[in-house]
Specification:
The termini are far apart. The radius of gyration is 23 Å and the shape is elongated. The protein folds into 2 domains: 43 residues, no CATH class; 58 residues, 434 Repressor (Amino-terminal Domain), CATH 1.10.260. By secondary structure, it is mostly helical. The chain is built from 7 helices and no strands.
């Protein structure tokens, strides 16, 4: 039985059909290097593409990302303080009294493996700064 060619997913129906087809590979994975393995890989790619376009997942808030890494890595606030330069700085970051600098973000990314995009997000709730000097009134 000839299989339908794999095409981009353009609708929820296309997506559901692709999910149904890829599910059969979860029970019995195809052997590497076979046409079935290639089909599985292509289905996974188009499904991931469709999901990322229709249901994007925003990176976590930087403080939430740090707290999650501390929890999963067994790190303490003292460990964070050693990484960032002081316990007070770590406390200020975790209580959102201080923002991360690029150097802090780099250390957290390099040493603790926190994705950079989670650490360098713009603060979307901050008020915009006034540009230039205030007009004399």
């Amino acid at each position: 039985m000839a299989k339908k060619p794999i095409r981009p997913l353009r609708s929820e129906i296309d997506y559901d059909v692709a999910l149904k087809e890829i599910e059969r590979y979860f029970e019995k994975a195809p052997a590497r290097g076979t046409p079935e393995a290639d089909r599985f890989d292509l289905l996974a790619i188009i499904i991931e593409d469709y999901e990322s376009k229709h249901w994007p997942i925003e990176p976590p808030d930087p403080v939430d990302a740090i707290r999650y890494r501390m929890e999963t890595g067994g790190f303490t606030q003292a460990d964070l303080g050693r990484l960032l330069g002081s316990r007070q700085r770590a406390s200020d970051i975790l209580t959102r009294k201080r923002r991360l600098t690029m150097q802090m973000a780099w250390r957290l990314h390099r040493d603790w493996g926190i994705p950079a995009e989670a650490l360098i997000r713009p603060n979307l709730t901050a008020r915009p700064r006034a540009r230039g000097r205030a007009a004399a009134g």
